[in-house]
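User: I've been trying to design a sequence by hand for this structure and keep getting stuck. Would you show me what you'd pick, starting by listing the structure so we're on the same page?

Assistant: Good idea, let's start from the same input. This is the structure you sent:
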């Protein structure tokens, strides 16, 4: 008789943000069944301790209580029993992110890593999950969206608005299909023949038909890049919109997204706003992950060990390369033109240049240290870290241009990505730590090792001035013109004079301007200021906006800075210094442009 594993999940107390989960194991282990909850979620490389949200947990068999012993922070063992073992537990769900679980009167959302305990020894066994609607008349119109495979008849599922019984072939599959429930709107489309569903929850007023048309173009470009058929037979986008939120997390046939409601496309408005462009880039990024990290992945992730950190030095290849292709796809599918794309690229250059950590941490070390650094940003992070997303994207750009130049335009990074996909389809093996580099050399027939040594294992400057020049593009850095200047593409680029800089990044505070980051060697650090200080006045005059920090600076004249450090008012003597040339300007060079970035 085969073992059956059944989960039943229902929103128990919506106002208290609690999901109730019942887990039934037909044949528990004879020595006592062990249950575990992951400590991290694939795609987000930090130990998150999801078990801390379990409020109560108990077991019973045959209607009688069964003792549970907690083995460690995430594991429980039940006493040996005959027959089915039933575990019941409640999960507190108020994490408004794409990584955890959330429940209130408007919506519910969860990743399986937050709510489904694994059954030790049966992780490879099929399991069913029944997801119920919250009880009460206030929730009669709630619907459910997920890419899990339904076990209910299609008509029954539709009648239940998506609530019902689903099947996963393993625990790994179970936790890789997030669930959205509540009152949402949706649009559907097909990309290369594959059904796609786009669910949007939260309060908004937007043109979802246009969103579907634009996203369809993105999806078809990605599918065609790697080659049909797509690696899934259906796909679900789950987007929650609100205020001051942003993020995404990839899954094997779906993605969870969060964005500003204003980023959605407005009705009866042509063109693509900066907010909508940012949303399309996020969608493109997570969709590209369907190939690059959900299938093609580091060997260190095969299989995932969700009880501890899984170290790899390859995150630059999976997040950085994906970050290169996300905006590039918007250009190549025709949603934006080349100047708009190059403007986005210039902003990536600026983000990397503005973090002095690029001179201290290598890209491989950034990948390896993601567990303790990237997801735990603090006031000193820009001075000590480099992002495997942004610098990884620039390394991918440099590699693409290098391959194109050395192969006389007969090869590109596209060929490397397709080769990685072909290899995965043949073997489904993970990528060893040195295998990505070797495969790139084999596919292109080029000696790329000197480039990888410099780009990945040193802090040397990437040769992008020369490489972009080969495509007819000039790269230079100047001082920012104002606090909103993130760099860009300028057809008529004019030199910008170097202004004076305060040497810190500030944010508005009730008292004045709070210093969020103080840059290494800058005027603020030299004067003795620290991150967390709240500047209230310069030369006795009140300040309230970050731009005021630099606006009052004059060459040859020191400034008295009055600031609170905790509850103590302090005075600092600041000597203005030239502002850092950390803002990227891309502009056309004379002569015929290269084929990149259009093809």
């Amino acid at each position: 008789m085969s073992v059956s594993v059944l989960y039943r999940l229902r929103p128990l107390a919506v106002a208290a943000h609690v999901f109730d989960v019942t887990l039934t194991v037909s044949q528990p282990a004879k020595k006592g069944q062990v249950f575990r909850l992951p400590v991290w979620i694939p795609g987000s490389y930090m130990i998150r301790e999801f078990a801390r949200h379990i409020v109560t947990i108990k077991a019973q068999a045959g209607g009688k209580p069964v003792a549970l012993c907690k083995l460690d922070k995430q594991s429980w063992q039940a006493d040996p029993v005959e027959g089915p073992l039933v575990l019941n537990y409640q999960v507190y769900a108020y994490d408004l992110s794409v990584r955890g679980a959330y429940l209130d009167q408007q919506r519910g959302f969860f990743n399986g890593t937050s709510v489904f305990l694994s059954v030790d020894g049966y992780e490879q066994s099929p399991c069913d999950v029944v997801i119920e609607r919250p009880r009460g008349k206030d929730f009669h119109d709630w619907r459910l969206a997920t890419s899990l495979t339904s076990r209910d008849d299609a008509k029954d599922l539709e009648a239940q608005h998506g609530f019902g019984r689903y099947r996963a072939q393993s625990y790994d599959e179970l936790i890789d299909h997030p669930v959205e429930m509540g009152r949402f709107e949706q649009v559907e489309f097909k990309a290369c023949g594959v059904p796609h569903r786009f669910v949007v929850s939260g309060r908004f007023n937007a043109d979802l038909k246009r969103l579907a048309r634009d996203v369809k173009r993105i999806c078809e470009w990605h599918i065609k890049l790697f080659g049909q058929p797509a690696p899934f037979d259906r796909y679900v986008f789950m987007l929650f919109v609100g205020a001051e939120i942003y993020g995404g997390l990839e899954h094997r046939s779906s993605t969870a997204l969060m964005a500003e409601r204003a980023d959605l496309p407005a009705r009866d408005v042509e063109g693509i706003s900066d907010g909508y462009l940012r949303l399309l880039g996020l969608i493109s990024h997570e969709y590209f992950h369907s190939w690059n990290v959900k299938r093609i992945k580091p060997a260190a992730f095969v299989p995932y060990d969700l009880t501890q950190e899984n170290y790899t030095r390859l995150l630059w290849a999976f997040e950085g390369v994906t970050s290169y292709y996300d905006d590039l796809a918007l250009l190549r599918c025709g949603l934006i033109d080349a100047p708009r794309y190059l403007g986005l690229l210039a902003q990536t250059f600026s983000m990397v240049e503005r973090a002095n950590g690029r001179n201290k941490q290598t890209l491989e070390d950034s990948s390896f240290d993601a567990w303790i650094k990237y997801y735990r940003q603090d006031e000193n992070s820009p001075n000590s870290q480099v992002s495997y997303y942004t610098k990884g994207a620039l390394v991918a750009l440099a590699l693409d241009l290098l391959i194109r130049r050395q192969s006389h335009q007969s090869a590109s990074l596209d060929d490397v990505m397709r080769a990685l996909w072909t290899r995965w389809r043949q073997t489904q093996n993970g990528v060893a730590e040195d295998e990505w580099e070797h495969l790139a050399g084999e596919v292109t027939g080029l000696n790329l090792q000197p480039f990888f040594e410099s780009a990945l294992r040193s802090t040397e400057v990437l040769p992008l001035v020369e490489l972009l020049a080969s495509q007819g593009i000039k790269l230079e850095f100047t001082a920012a013109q104002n606090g909103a200047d993130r760099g860009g593409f300028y057809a008529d680029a004019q030199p910008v004079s170097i202004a004076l800089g305060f040497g810190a990044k500030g944010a508005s505070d009730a008292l004045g301007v709070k210093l969020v980051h103080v840059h290494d060697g800058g005027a603020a650090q030299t004067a003795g200021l620290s991150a967390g200080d709240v500047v209230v006045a310069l030369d006795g005059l009140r300040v309230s906006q970050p731009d005021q920090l630099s606006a009052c600076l004059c060459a040859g004249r020191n400034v008295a800075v009055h600031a609170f450090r905790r509850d103590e008012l302090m005075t600092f003597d600041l000597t203005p210094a030239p502002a850092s040339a950390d803002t990227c300007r891309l502009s056309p060079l004379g002569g015929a442009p290269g084929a990149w970035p259009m093809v």
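That's my pick for every position. To get oriented when you compare it with your attempt: The first strand starts at residue 5 and ends at 13. The radius of gyration is 26 Å.
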